[in-house]
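S1.2 Input.
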Amino acid sequence: QVKVVESGGGLVQPGGSLRLSCTASGSIFTINDMRWYRQAPGKQRELVADVTGGGTTNYADSVKGRFTISRDNPRNKVYRQMNSPKPEDTAVYYCNAELEGRICSPNGGCYSDPRGLRDYWGQGTQVTVSS
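S1.3 Output.
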């Protein structure tokens, strides 16, 4: 009932720019952190950047100064702007949303899922940095 979908991947040249978008939709009560991960061939998935509901951001050292994460809370969206990409940024990028689902009873009352905060993942989008 909750979906997380990324978009915006593709081929980008070194020194160019690319923006990824991610939307969480469905029965959502509240979203906590939203994060971007990436996984390069033969490597483990790594956290690239995250942003809290209040807008506090954190970045991996490898992308500081080049990537910017931002979010649009009313639209349940998170963005990742990539500037000055390098070939080593080539990876599948995944969006992650830490959120509480919403459950609505037959009488119309809605409340947060008692299971609490859970992680939801997108399907991933390929980003290739190459000239």
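S1.4 Remarks. The CA atoms of residues 36 and 95 lie 5 Å apart.
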